[in-house]
Known about the structure:
The chain is built from 15 helices and 20 strands. The chain is an alpha/beta fold. β1, α1 (15-24) and β2 (29-33) form a beta-alpha-beta unit. The longest helix is centred in the middle third of the chain and has 23 residues, at 291-313. Mean pLDDT is 92; it is low at 332-349. Xanthosine-5'-monophosphate is lined by residues 343, 345-347, 389, 391-393, 433, 467, 504, 508-510.
Amino acid sequence: MSQTIAVLDFGSQLTQVIARRIRECQVYSKIYHFSTPAAQLRADGVIGIILSGGPQSVYAQTAPHPDPAIFTLGVPVLGICYGVQLMGHFLGGKVALSKAREYGHGHLVIKKPGRLFAGLPRKLRIWNSHGDKLTRLPPGFVATAISENSPFAGIEDAKRRFYGIQFHPEVFHTERGVDMIRNFLLGVCGARQDWTTKDFIAHAVADIRAKVGKSRVILGLSGGVDSSVAAALLHKAIGRQLTCVFVDNGLLRQGERATVESLYRRNFKIDLRVVDASGLFLRRLKGVTEPEQKRKIIGRTFVEVFEKSLQSIGHADFLGQGTLYPDVIESVSIAGNPASLIKTHHNVGGLPARMRLKLIEPLRELFKDEVRKVGAALGLPREVVWRQPFPGPGLGVRVMGDITAPKLEILRHADAVLQEEMMRTGYYWKVWQSFAVFLPVKTVGVFGDERTYDYVVALRIVESTDAMTADWARLPHDLLQKISSRITNEVRGVSRVVLDISSKPPATIEWE
Ligand code: XMP
């Protein structure tokens, strides 16, 4: 049986981040509901328990409490934030209610390194986010670290192997936080570092098989990293019980459909249905110029086409989706804060409930870089695993103004030239995104001896780490020159190429 670290989830958005940090240490962990009976944890062979943070006060009527018997299992426990208050509450300490949350950077001074802080500098920057705090130590505990907010920023009962920290070691802003978690896993719990991407895949495959049984799963394949990895993983688990649907919305890039067909049908032998709905999309988009309107039409039409395609496939019980953990957080925050909805992302949020399909989301707990590792381990090529992001509405938001087939053709061709040069020089892999935008503006040019009056193409090439902010990439001038001269020479209908040198903010990455 694999050694398991149990992360008891008390409702913090950071619970998944704790699990991720544990995976980074190559240790297996499982997130459990906070109320899981201690007997269950024992039966699962749990070798250590981490109590996550949570938004409540331990005294609140609705406060989530663990089974108190977890403290008598004889396994190490690490309480983080709300978790340390639970330790105070259940083990005989005192927790003071506070009116305001302490939030943001703080400074930790380690007084007694013990096993948790072993090998760390005495002073560290930390990240706080808590309301109540511990005001009296439970019997058997000593303080190991202090901060400006608390004389009990770190506590331990080394004999029982109980540790508590008031701040969040799992977030990036806490210096050496991962080392604290690693110290707990390896130094305190004695965990083996044997959890790899391969193990994740084996577990996921077993989970999918158990969940799906003999049923069918349908998955909408876009060709992007997330849906591709989800498809490859589901296919490994259930083979021909998986049917993938790829909708050609007429807004794809050059060769995109053919590439998807050859990779999944020929290489992976996936049951792939390609639905050509380009005519329908283009008809519905005719004359539409307003960006949100375009997105809505594309999103709605996609759902409609996808739904209809299901009828021809026959009965299925599950809808597979390549949802990642950041999508889960993003949809939550968007739902809670309409102001954060700057552009509607039709591919997050799923399909209507009336489809009555159960969701299966094998990547739901992973972060993007982990998904890439899984994809590579499943044999997906570099072009897929490290593919640049491409918006759900596709070229629909890269043709400014109304969309027509000839404009799309011009854009496709110009974009292909750009990608070819980016690939040839290797810059494709170094930037976040590189693409062409079609501008419905005619300008005068001269080609041979003739005066021309043709369209403009803009190059949008940006660097970014998370798409929240971005800056235009400083590419070598001779590369830009090559791209520009190839486009104006090879793409009929374009007489001018311009470079977008705006950062995000205030501009966005896409033009619409
Ligand atoms: P913006 O233009 O908002 O884009 O700076 C940020 C990132 O999101 C991508 N993007 C989308 N992705 N569906 C998607 O899946 C969409 O509707 C969509 N709109 C923008 C964009 O390419 C960039 O990576």
